[in-house]
Amino acid sequence: MLEGLPPNNASHMLRLDCDEKRARAVADLIVETFEPTETAAAAFELDDGPRWSVEVYFASAPDEAQILALIEAAADAETARAARFSTVAEQDWVENALAGLAPVRAGRVLVHGAHDRGRRRPNDIGIEIEAALAFGTGHHGTTLGCLKALERIAKRRRPRRILDVGTGTGVLAIAAALLFHQRVACGDIDPVAVATASANARANGAGADVRPVVATGLRHTSLQGQYDLIFANILAKPLRLLAPQIADAATADAELVLSGLLARDVRGVLDAYRAQGFFLAERGDIDGWATLVLRRGGSSSAPSLSLPR
């Protein structure tokens, strides 16, 4: 799973094989140490046995000694010695990561590649997403958790003003636009992600309702206003920092869907939003990643859902 966000124009990478515990520890420490626009880490199980692999992608040539020291701190010296650095073509790492991925379903929403168009059922909302320079296809636990939250929200209400903060590939904005037949305001700090999301929206018949803009948080004229559904699938630190902006943009009856955070990050994020008057209504966990649904007022006796893939 990807533990972080993809850097712009990734040019270098690191790979090492180890056990699951060390792989997760290394990926976690890398993500915590570097800015998400500069470095991303992916930890995943290998097909041929119990071993795991860690891949780290860098926007520029890394300080190899610093990275090896971090790996040794997170795991041990033997794991650090197994690390191998290399250069990478701009799109190779995403294409390799997404190659052969199966369709992902969340209720009526089916996220798939071109080769799986035939798997759509009648009345499905099919979203076709191919390899691109921004991650977020529904296969990662955070995106899937948000899609499942969207499915549950759709059963109880019809949001009329929707915002997607940190849109990535645009899959959440596209799903919301197609499900609710509403325009979805969305932005991302990464111009490559914005271009990718725009292309994906047009390809999926949502180009008129999903028009991403380059923005830091909500700082863009097209994102100003009040929203009754706000998605933010980013990382724990920006979620905390953006709490005042997101709260200001939320209507009195708004629901927030927050993800991009590991289980250990939940308390800090919740504290930031409780300070803005929100409480935890629902929590879902997939592959160690938490998705939170927040509302204003009330109490925090929220159900915790261990969501299936």
UniProtKB/TrEMBL annotation:
Main subcellular localisation: cytoplasm
Key words of the record: Cytoplasm, Methyltransferase, Ribonucleoprotein, Ribosomal protein, S-adenosyl-L-methionine, Transferase
Binding, S-adenosyl-L-methionine: T143, G166, D188, N233
Enzyme class per UniProt: transferase
Catalytic activity: L-lysyl-[protein] + 3 S-adenosyl-L-methionine = N(6),N(6),N(6)-trimethyl-L-lysyl-[protein] + 3 S-adenosyl-L-homocysteine + 3 H(+)
Gene3D superfamilies: Vaccinia Virus protein VP39 (3.40.50.150)
Xref: InterPro entries: Ribosomal_L11_MeTrfase_PrmA, Ribosomal_PrmA_MeTrfase, SAM-dependent_MTases_sf
Pfam families: PrmA (PF06325)
GO molecular function, one term: protein-lysine N-methyltransferase activity
Localisation per UniProt entry: Cytoplasm
EC numbers on record: 2.1.1.-
GO cellular component: cytoplasm; ribosome
Biological processes per GO annotation: methylation
Function, as annotated: Methylates ribosomal protein L11.
Family: Belongs to the methyltransferase superfamily. PrmA family.
Name of the protein in question: Ribosomal protein L11 methyltransferase
Gene source species: Methylocystis hirsuta
Gene label: prmA
